[in-house]
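seq as requested:
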Amino acid sequence: MLSFIQNMGRTALNFLSALGRITLFSVVAIRWIFTPPYYWQQFFRQTLDIGYYSLPVVGLTTLFSGMVLALQSTPVLPGFRRKIQWQRLWCYRSHESWGRYWPV
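struct tokens:
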């Protein structure tokens, strides 16, 4: 029983120690963001590199994902088409019956 409690305490202390190290790292990193000197040219260059020049990768990923989705959904779509047509027929019939009671 004592061994179990020691293991739980050791695990909790290790977790809190790691959490403290992550918190200190985050505080120091945020402090250095607002400490001069600022390298604006480098900032805008990296923003351009990361944001704008990654658009072809995003576009290709979207294109291939769309193609895979189209191929995977091809066998399923005919069943949805029948269901949609049945719903249209039902809506048409229900509107037809409304005309007898509430003339528009």
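Residues 1-35 form one domain.
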